[in-house]
Design goal:
The chain has 228 residues and is of the alpha+beta class. It is built from five helices and eight strands; from the N terminus they run ααβββββαβββαα. It has a four-stranded antiparallel β-sheet, with no helix packed on it. It has a four-stranded mixed β-sheet with strand order 2-7-6-5, with no helix packed on it. The chain is elongated.
């Protein structure tokens, strides 16, 4: 039994062109079509990073705190892969106990009258930077002294740039979703509006909705029964 199925970006682009009917059978995209497909695929995945689905980009990370430090630059030296947004952050003390932190907006953080208060960090503000792979993580209050305290995070990583010959950084469960939705992105370039194109659009929408529906962690919530 194996579970190693994957597709390169070129194969996903070929898949999309086949769904569009632009190439058939064992045909392959031309050099121009491949270049066009890489651009559209890269742009689409970057958009998905902001709008979803993005459950496959959720990543765990942590970094140590420093004494009297408010801002920590998150880069390849501090976390495994670049962060786009922080989904959850916990402060971990010297005994390994974790305290959930509250996210602050940009305005909330910069409206703090005194930012260098000393204490246990309970809030954070994350400022992603335009430079790929960087972001600034602000805490409040800050630690006056540290030993082994750190911040543990669940964050959404940035999606890797598309390289035609490399495996696409998407789980195998979503490859058809990506392929169909790439076909929809490419349809206007070829002026395709026939019934086959409409079927592709409908199938792409259904697959993407399934991915969005799946794009949440499993949880069980118990609600008290209401009696009147």
């Amino acid at each position: 039994m194996t579970t190693s199925f994957s597709l390169t970006a070129t194969q996903v682009i070929q898949y999309a062109f086949q769904k569009m009917g632009v190439i058939r059978g064992g045909g392959a995209p031309s050099a121009n079509e491949l270049t066009e497909g890489v651009i559209e695929l890269d742009a689409m995945l970057k958009q998905w990073a902001a709008l979803g689905p993005f459950i496959f980009t959720k990543t765990l990370g942590s970094f140590p705190l420093l004494a009297n430090t408010l801002m920590f630059e998150l880069n390849s030296q501090t976390i495994p892969v670049p962060a786009l947004r922080i989904l959850q952050a916990n402060y971990q003390d010297v005994n390994g106990r974790e305290i959930p932190m509250f996210s602050m907006s940009r305005d909330d953080y910069f409206n703090l009258p005194i930012k260098n208060n000393a204490g246990v960090p309970t809030q954070y503000f994350f400022d992603p930077q335009p430079t790929f792979g960087q972001g600034n993580f602000y805490i409040w209050p800050m630690k006056a002294s540290v030993t082994t305290e750190q911040i543990n995070m669940i964050y959404q990583r940035r999606i890797d740039d598309v390289v035609a010959t490399s495996a696409l950084g998407v789980p195998q469960e979503w490859l058809s979703t990506v392929g169909y939705n790439l076909a929809v992105m490419l349809l206007p370039n070829y002026g395709l509006t026939d019934e086959s194109a409409k079927l592709v659009v409908a199938q792409a929408a259904q697959l993407k909705q399934q991915a969005m529906d799946y794009d949440r962690d499993d949880s069980v919530q118990l609600k008290p029964e209401t009696r009147w």
